[in-house]
């Protein structure tokens, strides 16, 4: 029975479901089942003798995307090779393409996988067993599959492999590599990566394979410790981590020194365990840990647990999960929240009560000069492998800011300068339609009557914390004339006018200069009333200007009132005949 898209322990698998060409194979159909039955391929006697088994994902169609890892479960790797093919059918051989093969084991050590990839799409895998000089060899093939992205996958490593590439190494090895993916909640077992006592230009590495491609934004969570001897020689930078999609590296290798910062050395000095998160930023399906160097390390890396999880990292946090907060309140937020993930906040490392749920959490009651620890847990539905991630909130004191001084009651169209004893801050106005303010000089310009809140913000250059003081600026309106005016009189007629204002309590005074053609001398008054008889000595209309000065609530306004004085008509002459 062919299998395809089956969910197995959170893995979404696509199996090779078509039996292809084979030689020296019995029970071949078992290799396209999804159970633990197997096909046995036995080579003839002889060094150059081979037998093979071909398994297809589809006839001729190259359905396996390029750079996809195909896992072939077998029982031995001795004298066995696995390659991939394009264009194969159930009755014809395909074309062999360049194949990368790695040997992997499942977490319990019972499943052996040949993990194969190619740089081009393909549709078949071929298992080949080579004979021995005086005998034959055989291999059991259970099935072949590749993983697809599965939202239900909890991210536990499905397989692991190791590699040693060390020159003149004594004891270079990865010991117990499966301990890094055994999902042991007690973290009592570890894989140990070491270059031994002597290594020149060497590396040892462990690869952890996950059950299909990640969601973009997922993190690698790794718990590790380092023997103090490694820390003493300052070689934290020689331990690196690299994410891959198939055989394609995601970004560049990141050393632990760059991922964690050397501030961590004090915490690791007693061989303590530390959990860190590495976010590749793109889709990945495996991660590689490498210990390398050019001198003897006399130690190595203890790798207790590696899983792929939603990232709980906090925006703006240091490598040691520290954030700075100014004053007594702060809001901490997930740096790259993922859809469908529940983020819960606590003030205890375990147990306790959920303080909040969401991608951000407001914290109150902080004490400046102290550090408060909170925890966030990123929970994927159906998964139980979430850990609480600590968030250290260091509260910093707000700077003291001198009060705003200066005139905060001004008249429309006036300007004034405000100041504070704390120099170097920034000024702002809550309503620039009422009053504008120069952000650096504090010069205020009144635009319209009303009130605006003036804020002065000072930032402490040492802590980058800011504090503000405020003052209410009142812009008082200018008094204006509200009285009606008959703008024309005849020469010799009395001009009566009483000025009124739009503002109560307005006081008035007026003056009139000498006007050519008007025989009256200059006039003035300290009241709102004008009562004058103006004489136009010309034959043309003359405009006379009265200048009113209005004052209300300390604000003055000058308004001109213009009056046209027409000449008096002449006496008509009667001509006799």
Describe the structure.
- With 577 residues, this protein is mostly beta strands.
- It is 2% helix and 46% strand.
- It contains 3 helices and 44 strands.
- Strand 34 and strand 35 form a beta hairpin.
Output the keywords.
five-stranded antiparallel sheet, single chain, 2% helix, eight-stranded antiparallel sheet, 577 residues, mainly beta, disordered N terminus
Q: What's the helix and strand layout?
A:
Layout: E1 4-8, E2 11-15, E3 18-23, E4 25-26, E5 39-42, E6 50-56, E7 70-74, E8 80-86, E9 95-97, E10 100-105, E11 112-117, E12 124-130, E13 138-148, E14 159-167, E15 173-175, E16 191-194, E17 200-209, E18 218-225, H1 228-232, E19 239-245, E20 248-255, H2 256-260, H3 265-268, E21 274-278, E22 286-293, E23 300-310, E24 322-326, E25 330-333, E26 342-346, E27 356-357, E28 360-363, E29 371-379, E30 388-396, E31 409-411, E32 415-417, E33 426-429, E34 435-437, E35 443-446, E36 450-459, E37 466-476, E38 488-490, E39 494-498, E40 507-512, E41 523-525, E42 529-533, E43 542-552, E44 555-566
Parallel strand pairs: 24-30, 31-37, 38-44
Antiparallel strand pairs: 1-2, 2-13, 3-6, 4-5, 5-13, 6-12, 7-11, 7-13, 8-9, 8-12, 10-11, 14-17, 15-16, 16-23, 17-22, 18-21, 18-23, 19-20, 19-22, 25-28, 26-27, 26-29, 29-30, 32-35, 33-36, 34-35, 36-37, 39-42, 40-41, 40-43, 43-44
